[in-house]
Amino acid sequence: MSLSIHNAQEPVLDPSTKVVLFDLWKTLVTSHCKEPVWNLQGIIEHQVSRRDGGRVEVVTDDQFLEHCLTTNITDPSAFLEHAAYKFNGIVRPDSLTEFHKVLRGESMCTAVFGDVFETLTALRAKGYRLGVVSNAWAFPFEHIFERINFNGVTLGSFFEHIIGSYEVGFRKPEPQIFLEAARRFGVDPENCFFVGDNVEADVRGAARVGMRPALIDRPGEFSPADIRDIPGAVYLHDLRQLVAA
Questions:
Q1: Domains in the chain, please, with CATH?
Q2: Is the pLDDT reported for residue 86 higher than 90?
Q3: Which of 55, 90, 226, 243 has a beta carbon 3.0–4.6 Å from 222's, enabling a disulfide?
Q4: Whole-angstrom Cα distance, residue 193 to residue 22?
C-alpha cells in the first residue's frame, strides 16, 4: 500500500474507522518546560545513591524511562521509594522536595495546540469515538486533562478512554498497549486510526497491530518519505486535516 499524503480535498478517515486515537505529548499538548519524563527522570537519577554508601551505580536513561512509564504508582513519595528499591539505591532527604517542585512546575507549563479543540469537536460531531494512548507516568498525566480547557470544556471530556502506559505496564511501540486500547473500545484494531508524532513508537507501533497510523509533524522534522514503507500511513502537518473533507 502506498503512502497517503492528504490535502484539504481528500478525506483522511475511511469508512472502516470507528475510533480515533491520539498520542498526547507533541500531538495534543506541548510543554514549555523540559520534556516531562526526562525532567522528572533526571531528578530521580541524580537523587538516588547506593544503599551501601559505595560508588553510585550508573543506570541508563532507558532503564529509568522503562520504569517511569510502566510503574503504576501515583503517590510521589511511594514512587521515589520504589525507584530507589528497584535500582538498589536510597532516597536522599531532599529528593521528595525536589520531585514535588518539578511536578508543580511541569503541570503548569503544559499547553494545548491550537488545532486540537476544533478537531476534536468536529470528530465527535461526525460520530467518531475518541481516545488517548500515551507513553506517560502518573505525574501529571491525569491533571493535564482536567486543567486544560476551552470555554469551560476540558480536554479530557472529549475522550472515552485515556490510557497511560504506567497503568497498562507496556509502552509504545509494544503491541500490548495498542491492543488494550482496541479492547477497551470493543473494536478490532483495524477499526482504529492512530495519530502521533513519533515514527517508531506511534506510527510503526500502531501499524504493526493493524491500526491505520498518521504522523503529525508539527515542527516539520520529517518528510513523507520517512513513513513511505509503512502500510496506509498518513502524513499530517495539522490535525484539522483529519476533518477537512
A1: 4-30+111-243 (3.40.50.1000), 36-108 (no CATH)
A2: no
A3: 226
A4: 9
